[in-house]
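Reopening this one. Same input as before:
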Amino acid sequence: MTLSHQTFTNRCFFSGLLLFAVIASPLPSSSADESLLQQHCGKCHSDPEPEGKFKLEDLGKPPSKKTLDAWTTSIDRVRAGEMPPAKSSQLTPDQRQRLLNYLSGKVQFYAQRSADSLRAKPRRLNNREFANSVRDVLLIEDVGTHQPVDNLIGDALHKGFDTHGETLGFSNFHLEQYITALRRIIDATIISDPQSLSRRYKIDPTQIFAAHTSQNTKRRERQGEPDHFDFLDPKQLAYFAPFKTVPHTGWYNLTIRCTAKDRGLYDWKKTGIYDGDPIQIEVQLGNRTQTFDLPDDEILEIKLTEWLAAGSRLRLRYPTDGLTQRGNGNFKFQNAIAGEYIKEHDPQLYDRVVSSIRPPKSGRTRSPAAWQNWVQYWRGPRPRVLSAEVEGPLHETWPPQRQVALIGETPSVQNAIAILKPIAERAWRREVQDAELSQIVQLVQSKVAELGDIEALKEGIVAILASPAFLILNIDEMNPQQRFASKFSYFLQSTIPDTRLRRASLSGKLDSLIEIRAELQRRVDKAQCDPFLKAFPYAWLKLSNINFMAPDPDQFPHYHRKRVSEDMVNEALHFFRHLTVNNGPIPDFMSADYSFINADLATVYDVNDIPKDSLFRKYTFTNGRRGGLLGMGSFLSITADSLGTSPIHRAVYVMDNFLGIHPAPPPADVKITEPDVRTARTIREVLEAHRSNKTCSSCHQSIDPYGYAFENFDPVGAWRDKYMARLSQPSRASKRTGKPQGIPIDASATFASGFEYNDITGFRKFMQTPANRDRFVRCFITHLLTYANGAEPNNYLEVEKILQVSAEHDYRMLDTIAAVIDSPLFREVRER
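Same output, byte for byte:
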């Protein structure tokens, strides 16, 4: 049987097993069935240089840890009909089933006797889990407006995932940075200084400034007019001169009076701002932001009450992806739109302005259309601030109630255990005995003379949060119920388990699939699973790579000027959320004829019947080319290069992320002589020349058909029927027309199984076959387990059991996630 390479490295492909009614006892080995292996596979895989560098003897005798990859990969490819290839073997359906039974029986026999532990290995919290967990341990809204965790080392990713245990390193430097961040957070949470006097800051428009966007700080910052401050350049943040930074930590009341001006006055095609979009203003309080829609020419009074940390910066921003359509994208070029508008609507004013134009000092003539002539006439869509007021710090009680909730009204080191124990139980995610806090209490007591009670207790809280019991997940100090509650919470919410979840787990109320499913539904309904709904698909689909090889900005200006990559990411997240919240069938990722798009994506997808605004809406495609993940711009852009597309990149992405097939790179010890491709004009011709090399041929026969189907999609995912030729010798047609001639795209291919397609619509049907449906759901389950456990699953029968439960529930999303959580692979138990 031809394999792409000798080994497939990712274990999500392994779970291609066949379950039978009774799996408790291994299926008997049959010499007749074993002979099928030799008869139909031996011809290609017994030579000194076998197809795909795979020999039958690589399977070994019985499966072992070393050879299990080859066994399970063989099962998957035999089941899919890819091996033996249709053109070289006449394996009957009965013989194929017997061969599957033989291979599956061997793997089942091994799996039932394997002593591999189901326990997830310990790993440290990643940065987002750290911030969320500290927030919930300290009972605060977030870690603070002073960006206290920005010093943390960025998390390394493993195949997109930031939960992978072996990738999340830990060092003394990590610990030092954690302690620094913790001190910043706790200092902004617990105030030991005397109560600060409150002050009211009344801000008129002349005290509002547009901050510099470059390092030329000598240039005067733009200042508001006496009656208003207008936002022009979206890149510029505005600040209040009397309140550049927060002087003292505490509660502050913020009032901002603002309105929207001139929405829709200029043609949206020129400004890039849709008439259907409201003008917005964004209030930035460190990393905490809130965005507000502004009414046109009516005053909105924004009122906020926020806990602000000393040193935080208050900034305002105009959030839009418009006003970048001209020149190099800098706002100044937009001013020319004012001249064009005046020329059409007020010719007399236009003539007066033109007649007053004086040449610059350089002496060169300035065109009347130049942007410099129209700066003072700009009336494009913009937010306008009329006034603002900030008052604080305010405290209805002293100490602040949030501090009292954490350490009490009159905290004393004498009550250290009573104060620190609830904090430790939240942080360590389990019940804590008094004796476990003895060393921390000693630390607190040793600091009280020097620091005082409150500061000494803060040292104790730092010690709790800097301990392995907090920073490390899946530690041995927890019992199975505590570990389960912790894993459940970090899987769905990326934070510590709440009291309800801990109690439910300890009392046995989460011991069945039905109970898990009900708890999952409850948390989805309460929007408590939002961290999972963003972090998991972002990692699984590798959305962080979308601009790693960004499309060329000259050839694809819309992609860059309108920040379409952000829309593409949001499309994928909207689709994932839709399927989860509605418990939709997981195969819809491959088969759906709909997605969620806005006007910017509609431009890329050549969709005309969608409103001209930025709102995402469910849209049904009717031509069979798009819908689900296979037609999404995110996938198509991630797998393209700056100027062109690669069937190989797209094929590997589909195989790896959707089907669990992981072709390894060419062996390092094999010398590959590249063929002469100078006469090749299309990507297919280049690859065909490459495949003429015997060393490369067998692998590309398995890989290439997964990528050719997408050749009609260019680097941003727009449809194309032809490649635009770049020939060293122009064709006669191009000489006549002066334009490069397109080369028709061939998006057809044939799989080893014999399945043929002519274009993307045929490939989509291929992905909906029962074998590929199960491949996709199995791979999806494996990614869920990898995200949840911090490691890829190593028990293949258990993965197949989850797939079976999913199938019984029509492969629906919430039912499948519940089956994953209820599995021994998640619960970390061997027998139920």
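So the earlier flakiness isn't reproducible anymore. For the record, Residues 123-193+400-473 form one domain.
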